[in-house]
Amino acid sequence: MLGAKVKAKTKQKSSKVSNQHIDRSSEDEGMTNAPTLGNEYHDDFADDRSDYSEEEKDETEKTLEKLVFGDDEGFLQSLKRKSSAKGKELVLAPGAAVEASDVDEEQDLENVDDADLFFLDSGPGTGPSGPNITSSAGQTKDSEKNDQKSSIWWDSDDDRIVVSLASNSRLRKLRDTEADDVVSGRDYIHRLRRQYERLHPRPSWASAEAIKSGHARKRRRRDSAGSDIVSASEPEDENDSEEMSSLQAKPLAELLRSADSLIDTSATSKSSRFKLRPEVVDIHRLKDITSSSPSAITALSFHEKYPILLATAGPASTVFLHHVSPQSLNPNPLLTSLLLKRTPLHTVEFRPSSTTSTSSDLTQIFLSSRRRYMHTWHLSTGLIAKHTRPIYGNKSARATQRTLESFRPSPCGRYIALIGSSRKGGGIINILDASTMQWQCACRADGRGGVADFAWWKDGEGLAVLSKSGEVSEFSINERRIIARWIDEGNVGPTTIVIGGRSGKKGGLLGPDRWVITGSTSGIVNIYDRTTWGHPPPPPSSSTTTPTPSPSCLLSNAFTPSSPTPIRTLENFTTPISTLTLTPDPDSTLLIISSRWKKDALRLIHLPSCTVYRNWPTASTPLGRISSVAVTTWGGSGSGGAVAKNESGKGFWLCVGNEKGRIGMWEIRV
Questions:
Q1: In this structure, are residues 333 and 322 in contact, taking their beta carbons and an 8 Å threshold?
Q2: pTM for this structure?
Q3: Per mean pLDDT, which range of 328-337, 631-640, 658-667 is the poorest?
Q4: What tens digit of pLDDT does each residue of 105-151 get?
Q5: 226, pLDDT greater than 60
């Protein structure tokens, strides 16, 4: 046994040596014996795999494999069943109707594109209607041809790009049929655009017709506007302003054309008076004017002819126009609004009707902010004009007018006065022509700190300028100079001034006004009666033996006392006076004073008795911190306000705006 084992080991070693000799010889001879060596190695791997032979499958595993994958016998039987059923399909009889319940939905939709199985319900007229739910390849080619015709330029590289739609799961929705796979770059762009417009339909303003109409509106505006007038908004907001103008023009034009039926023009008497009894006022609250402004109402004003209320939310750069109709089912509806982006409004005023113009429609609104330009809004046409160079005709005026934020139009409608910057301890007011926006003259008022406020005479021929030192300068536009100066009694830190009423005298040097009222930072209000100001003293009577010569100071000061005494001083407030408002009736029988620095700080004063009404406002009157006040007349004749024919009696409408953006409305009955 031992000898046999030794012989076997010796035989194995000799075979290994012979195999190594064969390998070296095969490498020397080249690749001629490679197949032989490959077969030898293959046999070795086969021997290794034979060591790990698969185990035989049991009956359970064979049954499961047959159920899942099938076998040859089942495949042949299925072929026999299909061949035997050929030609035995059910066919509908002629004229028979097909019901929806008899149709297999999965069989109908098996060839439908995935993107066409669903649609966005964005309103009536959207989504598939009828059987045309799929788009054919012919329609795609036609749309491509239309795109090629409408396109101005195509990139040649798009034709060389090839995109596979079936390989990417996100692009399969772009296929027209299931067989679609590879498309060109141009076709791929078209299908992307089609899919996007299917999910996001093109808006109406982006259609070709809307674009053409927009270009036509631009041309009309350029033709109608002057060289100094440009669009109100910035260039990027030009389309928004044009759309807004087209929406505003139609309703306001119709309202202004039909407003003559609401205005009583038959009565031409100017002597109608609104008589109020002192101490107790007959006032009733009306429904508040709804305002969606999130900021304070900084300005309120009524139109002198039409029943329109102008409300300004200065910090929000928004202007609201309301139709004043408190007795209707929908009281005081909003007519329109205007938003000037990035322009916080400071002063907004109606332009009064000019007495010298022949045009019957001068319904304009002036808007200004802390900028070197201002805007004009024409209500009848909806045009918004931007005046960029209103005072560039005079070099000195341009140097003193840094901003146009504070202005006031004249009652005659011919001029606009702008408060300039303080210079050398005094104040300057530049006066422009309201039609051409050209500089006319300037008023230089003496006094430390500049101009606190100013007020126009009722005839528009002059103005009273209140300096911050308490001196009032009377400026005449006809003479282009200051004709009188006087000192406000005890007024330290003046804030505002107002002029109104009628003196009843003609030929005065200081206009036809009777009342001049000033307010201060200490809450004191002085009321002056200037009936005799600007008129020479009456001649002495015959019974007087010694004539009384007129003082030379009165003659040189336009017969105006240099230190007049007020007929009444009101001390109801201890906070600065922010608003002084007189009613627009001929006699200005009511004065409204308010202060925004204290809650519910408002008082009504009867003129000429100068008594404060004690029954209103009460502790429960919802006023808040008052930021603006406006008053107009209703009923009567010759009232100077919006007079309604169907109103019985007469009185005043009072509107009060506060810092929360609310506008309260009250009715004062005469």
A1: yes
A2: 0.61
A3: 631-640
A4: 445 555 556 656 555 544 444 444 433 333 334 444 554 555 545 56
A5: no
CB atoms within 10 A of CB 337: 17
Q: SS3 of 107, please?
A: helix
Q: Which two tokens stand for residue 409?
A: 């139009």
- State how far the alpha carbon of 556 is from the alpha carbons of 296, 364, 442, 475, in Å: 46, 40, 21, 14
φ, ψ dihedrals at 117, nearest 5°: -75, -20
Strands 229-231 and 568-570: unpaired
Q: What is the CATH number of the domain that holds 445?
A: 2.130.10.10
Convert the pLDDT of each residue in 623-649 to its tens digit: 999 999 999 998 644 344 454 444 446
The 3-class secondary structure across 18-34, one letter per residue, is: HHHHHHHHHHHHCCCCH
Q: Is 49 helix (H, G, I), strand (E, B) or coil?
A: helix
Domain membership of residue 283 as a residue range: 260-327+403-539+551-669
Q: What is the distance between the alpha carbons of residues 530 and 535, in angstroms, rounded to a whole number?
A: 10
Band of the pLDDT at 570, cuts 50, 70, 90?
very high
Q: Which residues pair with residue 651 across a beta bridge?
A: 634, 669
Nearest CA-CA partner of 385 in 393, 375, 395: 375
Total number of domains constituting the chain: 1
Phi, psi of 310 (to 5 degrees): -100, 120
Residues with Cβ within 8 Å of 298's Cβ and at least 6 positions away in sequence, in order, are 312, 313, 314, 315, 345, 346, 627, 628, 657
pLDDT in tens, 497-519: 999 998 877 777 888 999 999 99
The verdict on residue 605 lying in a domain is yes
Structure tokens at 150: 């409408």
For residues 634 and 286, the answer to whether their CB atoms sit within 8 Å is no
- State how far the Cα of 351 lies from the Cα of 437, in Å rounded to an integer: 13
The total number of residues written for the chain in this structure: 670
